[in-house]
Amino acid sequence: MKYIFILTALAALTVCGADAGTFVRCDHPAFGLSPFSWHVAKSADGTPSAEAPNPGAYFKTIVSGTSTIKLRIDGAANRFYGEKANVWIEYSVDDLTFVSKQLGTPADSDIYDITLAEGLNPEENHLVEVYFRSGELGPRWSNSRGHLRINGLVLDEGGKISVYPKRPKYALCFGDSITEGVGAVGHFTTWDETSPNSARVTWFPVVCEALNCEYGQAGSGGHGIQQRTMEIPPLVDSWSYLWQDTSRLKHGKLVPEPDYIFCNMGTNDNSPEGRHTVDFVTPYLKWLRDIRKAAPKAMIFMVVPPNGVHRENISTVLAKCDDRNVYIIDTPRLNNRITVRPPTPTSLTSDAVHPNEYGHALFGATVAVEAQKIIDGK
Q1: What is the DSSP letter of 70?
Q2: Along the 378 residues of the chain, how does pLDDT read in single tens digits?
Q3: What's the Cα-to-Cα distance from 195 to each of 98, 139, 170, 182, rounded to whole Å?
Q4: Under 8 Å between Cβ of 69 and 120
Q5: Which residues contact 127 (CB under 8 A, 6 or more apart)?
Q6: Neighbour-count burial of 159, counting CB atoms closer than 10 A to its CB (0-12 exposed, 13-18 middle, 19+ buried)
Q7: Which of 62, 256, 273, 354 is the most buried (most CB within 10 A)?
Q8: What is the end-to-end Cα distance of the chain in Å, rounded?
Q9: How far is residue 258's CA from residue 246's CA, in Å, rounded to a whole number?
Q10: Nearest 5°: CA angle at 274, between 140 and 317?
């Protein structure tokens, strides 16, 4: 009886119809939503949606029995956007080059489909990867504007999905505009145009590839440990939430428990005059104590920002911290190459602050090497 119940429950997550083909809901256990990134809720009619506030959220799954694959978008969160500020996604089928697409706002309905692939061989398995590439920063905390909200996949009738093999480890990262991918694929000038940004090509996915991790990527431009100039509260007050009133935790814990937690913040923790004279140590220590309760066994890496800011303060945090599973990762040789004064474009950055794709690759590889040394006890 137990197995009959399980099969019935799984079948309920796939809806078939003569006109619509097969609709696979986003809460299907094989959908492969990235950890720590999504909030899954049901609408009044019972249709679920998965919503992510931060670029970098992704899902991976394997599709079979279909020649077409479409992603169903719930565009209600994005209906007020201008032409250039709306959410971007990136997708790949069968490991082909990623395709970037900016979401639209159809006039006739908030629910619409995006074709990811067509003309596929239905007798074969097809890997599907979709990433939240970039979105506007402004209202990310207070409401759903700027979030990516999806309902599921639309396949040919009889199509189905199966689990894409997950990596064995889990990682979570908190960061600012660098972790969000601002300026990673173009010269960033304004939040009114999000095309220069891409979270997928940033340093943290490089680290997780090296450490063999599925991951949650929580980067927001202007965010800091204690700074209070942005709509989103400082990390010490907001880390446990995806966005306002929407918890990241389950019964007070991060689920699944991450093996590694990274924090690459500090660049924005300035005094009003731009000097790093504010109290940085006290809130950082509080954050470490609080997140330790949610992830008792995780290794926590305090990453010194690539410009070297707050290096001394982060060292003080480590000295005052009574947690032996907290570590510092520093990349001093990159300090003057990624952040340049006076502002001058280099091979690692187009705006002298935010790394480009090559800069992210170099920074990520360096962080990964240092993290692996720590993990190996070296």
Answers
A1: E
A2: 433 333 334 444 555 543 458 999 999 999 999 999 999 998 767 789 999 999 999 999 999 999 999 999 998 888 777 667 789 999 999 999 999 999 986 655 688 999 999 999 999 999 999 999 999 888 899 988 889 999 999 999 999 999 999 999 999 999 999 999 999 999 998 888 899 999 999 999 999 999 999 999 999 999 999 988 788 999 999 999 999 999 999 999 999 999 999 999 999 997 555 555 678 999 999 999 999 999 999 999 999 999 898 999 999 999 999 999 999 999 999 888 887 777 778 889 888 889 999 999 999 999 999 999 999 997
A3: 15, 18, 29, 9
A4: yes
A5: 60, 61, 62, 92, 93, 94, 95, 164
A6: buried
A7: 354
A8: 52
A9: 19
A10: 80
Q: Looking at this protein, which amino acid is placed at residue 243?
A: W
For residue 114, the surrounding DSSP H or E stretch is: strand 111-117
Nearest to 360 by CA among 369, 348, 344: 348
14-17 and 21-25 beta bridge pairing = antiparallel
| CA torsion, ordered 104, 108, 109, 115, to nearest 10 deg | -50
Structure tokens at 119: 């003309």
Q: Which of 249, 286, 248, 283 is nearest to 268 (CA)?
A: 283
* Closest to 235 in 3D by CA, of 179, 314, 176: 176
**For 139-148, b where at least 16 C-beta lie within 10 A, e where not — what string?**
bbbeebbbbb
Q: Which residues of 8-41 are buried (b: 16+ CB within 10 A; e: fewer)?
A: eeeeebbeeeeeebbbbbbbbebbbbbbbbbbee
The alpha carbon of residue 350 and the mean position of all alpha carbons in its chain are separated, in whole angstroms, by 23
The edge-to-edge listing of strands for the beta sheet with 88-93 is: 99-102, 88-93, 126-134, 58-64, 160-162
User: Which residue reads 């997708």 in tokens?
Assistant: 91
Output the CA torsion sign for 304, 238, 135, 49.
positive
Q: Look up tokens 């995006």; give the residue.
A: 114
| Rounded distance between C-alpha atoms, residue 252 and residue 260, angstroms | 18
Cα angle, residue 212 at apex, residues 247 and 300 outer, rounded to 5°: 50
